[in-house]
Write the structure tokens for this entry.
Amino acid sequence: MPKNTRGVQVKQIAEHLGLSSGTVSIVLNGRGDELRISKETQKIVLDTAREMNYQSGKNQKKNQKTAARREKFCIGVFWNLHYMGGLLGQFYSGFLETIKQYHAEVEIVLQPFEYDHLNLLEDAFSGKRYDGAIIGGLSEIDSGYLRENTFEIPIVLINQTLENYSSVYVDDYQTGRQCAELFCRNGHKRAGIVSSENRSAASVLRYNGFAEECRKCGIQLKDEWKVTGEGNGIGGYESVRQMLQCRELPTALFVQTSRMSSGILAALRDGNIEVPGQMEIIAYGDGDFSQYLYPTVTVLHVSVAEMAANAMHLVLTILQNDLHMTLSKLHVTKLIYGESFQEKPYERTP
């Protein structure tokens, strides 16, 4: 193969090999392993680049100018107003951790939106204001809006998966099932669930998984034991006070938003319901603060900061490598035991 002494472009290597420019760019930037490009493909790309006398942009003035233009990005963070509490600070902490790893100047602009009304910000996705976007707190209506439209900028969704969009997500349906399975193993026959009144698409999946597994396990999940409130301590307190009016109470409680746990525990104390003696509790969310509650709460933990870091990583990877593809990252929940629920040991039969 003749060498091109004038320097070869990524596009030429891609065309020669029949690969996408994005794949070639990732390999040449040393990130093939990170994005799971096969060792064989990486070797072919590197060997071909060497044979064609490819030189990195650092040694080519034209590429230097192009790189300089692309090392400054403005990322819009679209955030549901109902999730503007402590979670947002943890997300920004995660964003900053990732940005430190990139040799790029990244401006983060917070773009709040009302529940169910992401569509009112359509102009923000045109590419004129932001180079990329990260969106969190989607309702089912907001998800439907994204599903029906395509946009010019790369978009990464937090805890939601949609075709044609990159995402960092949890298997929410399986998380709901896991909670019901844990209750079943401890012998519970009656369970309740507490949810935020502004239900996200992810929380609907968790509920569906929990309800389906309860049905399979023979656990009652009565309508009066399904309560909602604001996604904070006050909402937790008020929703459980409502549940305590029932003649019969569940013996297990799934809390869909861990931020509601403090109020839930307070309401149960006021109602003289002992935790875990009379009611066991498992919450979903970031478990960093659950260890400071009384009693401490068992949590299906997902690191908010880690999800944010990976969301920023995906959007910057797409932008820096000019990828025309979607990327995704699955986060697995970790069961962190507190005092509110302890799995009982299996009884061995002689």
In short: Residues 10-66 form one domain. Residues 1-7, 58-69 have pLDDT under 50 and may be disordered. The chain is about 35% helix and 20% strand. The chain has three domains: 10-66, 71-170+304-332, 172-303.
